[in-house]
């Protein structure tokens, strides 16, 4: 167990515990807390927090902290009170920076569910250096975006030879619905494409160049992928960027590492419909009036019903090649956006708080900061990582 900040009142504080994803994470932690875990739920409404605590198993032992991102002192006090803070308060580009800054200053480990590239790039430029000084680990995208991709590629690379060029293609299939918070964050990001590109450029100016190795990760071009028997389409998510950062941080990915990512769809009309739907939402998000109308369709706090979540699932298949070896792996589980996301966020918080991990600090990915330890935790929690075939 890391000795850093052992004198603080809480091992883990969950900020935004009253959000759709936050309440599921609180329930998961309450049901799986190791003996002696000191943890608290935090948010802006004391009344909502008390109601949540009353329905948690063992809730009497859970702390309640009031903090509002509009009140910086309350956010600083929250960061000072914990060894690890996990937050679901999004859109992160709107609400997230205060807590990242406070954790970087206080040397507090930080986790979020940000699938917003602009936010992650801005936080790198503004807070990575300070976090390295204090020892804080700043881990973004610790939910379905991007843990199964990041750890799935890490797991695949571990099945391939060392010190040779490697390629990995990732294919995702899923049946699931999303919440008001996720929809709002996605709309917000679609409306800020120019800001997103500027933040990426600024990050490139600040980030040290890789020396002696090559790493690339991109959205794949549309094609029929024989290897998985499906149409493979580009998927505009943050995951390839996270995978690229893990590959840059970890020499095990070899001297020349290439990753491409796709959504896999069996039937061509579904593929065409999917691309058209994402394109239509992205185009509508450019117009303030259309964006307002769209965001009214799914409100903050709304999300899929327990029945819908019980039927939801995901499967990520990876085809890895290098050094004369080819491997097909799979990461799979239940409801990706919420049930499994809550599990991933909570297990990541427990992992940072209690596991024996490589020494890292600053903005780090789940693979670089937690790798094998987090895979073991997620496997024990029912998320499958398996080698389907090798050649
Ligand atoms: N990475 C992934 O795979 C993944 C999966 C799921 C969700 N997400 C992301 O997670 C985030 C949460 O999603 P969700 O659907 O759970 O959101 P949500 O239900 O809309 O909740 C938003 C939360 O933000 C809180 N909040 C708003 N303003 C605040 C302020 N000034 N101070 C403190 N708290 C404030 C709200 O507090 P109140 O409860 O008091 O209103 C609520 O708890 C979104 O950004 C979403 O995109 C990512």
Automatic annotation (TrEMBL):
Protein's name according to its UniProt entry: Saccharopine dehydrogenase
Coiled-coil features, chain-numbered ranges: none
Domain Saccharopine dehydrogenase NADP binding: 12-131
Pfam families cross-referenced by the UniProt entry: Sacchrp_dh_NADP (PF03435)
Source organism of the structure: Streptomyces djakartensis
């Amino acid at each position: 167990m890391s000795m850093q900040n052992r004198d603080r009142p809480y091992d883990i504080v969950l900020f935004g515990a009253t959000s759709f994803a936050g309440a599921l994470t609180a329930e998961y932690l309450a049901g799986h807390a190791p003996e002696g875990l000191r943890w608290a739920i935090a948010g802006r409404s004391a009344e909502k927090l008390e109601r949540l605590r009353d329905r948690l198993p063992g809730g009497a032992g859970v702390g309640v902290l009031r903090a509002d991102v509009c009140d910086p002192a309350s956010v600083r006090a929250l960061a000072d009170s914990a060894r690890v803070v996990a937050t679901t308060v999004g859109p992160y580009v709107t609400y997230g920076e205060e807590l990242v800054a406070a954790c970087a200053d206080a040397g507090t480990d930080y986790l979020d569910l940000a699938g917003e590239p602009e936010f992650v790039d801005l936080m790198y430029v503004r807070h990575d250096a300070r976090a390295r000084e204090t020892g804080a680990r700043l881990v973004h995208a610790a939910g379905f975006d991007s843990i199964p991709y990041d750890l799935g590629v890490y797991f695949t690379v571990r099945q391939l030879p060392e010190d040779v060029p490697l390629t990995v293609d990732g294919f995702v299939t899923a049946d699931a619905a999303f919440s008001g918070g996720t929809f709002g964050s996605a709309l917000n990001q679609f409306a800020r494409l120019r800001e997103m590109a500027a933040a990426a450029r600024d990050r490139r100016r600040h980030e040290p160049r890789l020396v002696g190795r090559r790493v690339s990760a991109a959205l794949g071009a549309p094609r029929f992928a024989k290897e998985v028997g499906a149409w493979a389409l580009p998927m505009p998510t943050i995951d390839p960027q996270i995978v690229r950062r893990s590959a840059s941080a970890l020499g095990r990915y070899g001297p020349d590492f290439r990753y491409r990512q796709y959504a896999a769809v069996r039937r061509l009309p579904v593929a065409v419909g999917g691309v058209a739907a994402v394109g239509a939402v992205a185009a509508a998000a450019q117009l303030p009036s259309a964006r307002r109308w769209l965001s009214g369709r799914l409100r903050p706090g709304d999300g899929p019903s327990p029945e819908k979540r019980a039927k939801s699932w995901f499967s990520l298949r990876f085809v890895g090649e290098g050094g004369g070896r080819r491997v097909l792996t799979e990461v799979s589980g239940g409801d990706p956006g919420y049930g499994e996301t809550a599990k991933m966020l909570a297990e990541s918080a427990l992992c940072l708080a209690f596991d024996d991990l490589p020494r890292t600090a600053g903005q780090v990915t789940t693979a670089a900061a937690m790798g094998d330890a987090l895979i073991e935790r997620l496997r024990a929690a029912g998320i499958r990582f398996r080698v389907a075939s090798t050649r």
